[in-house]
Amino acid sequence: MEDDYSSYNLTNFSGNQSENTVSGSAEKLEGMDTIWELDAEEPEEVNISYSLMVTSGKAKLVYVDPEGTVSTLLECSAGEDAGQSASETIEVREGENRIRLVGAEGTGLEYEFTADKGDVEAFGD
Known about the structure:
There is one protein chain. It is built from no helices and nine strands. It is mostly beta strands and about 120 residues long. A hairpin with a 2-residue loop joins strand 2 and strand 3.
């Protein structure tokens, strides 16, 4: 079963996209949206880097494989672990692979995401 559902509420959102990088910030974000996707013809490696800074609430980046299995890449909450960043190589499988940004109710955040393959999309596009 494929889930292309994206639902969100945004307050004072600004986003930027250039080539293979997407970034943005929101005073309040609630919900989720896809910020990267790759329809792979065969299994391959993708180099990604990301950063997330949460000023209120909590947010996470999740990877969704072609079967719909969700894996958390990064999770941040306001306070102690408010800001995190990483670079890694992920193994994508044949089919539609996605990364989504997910925010709990009233989450204030800044994020940046880069991938060397696939399509990046600004949140809310």
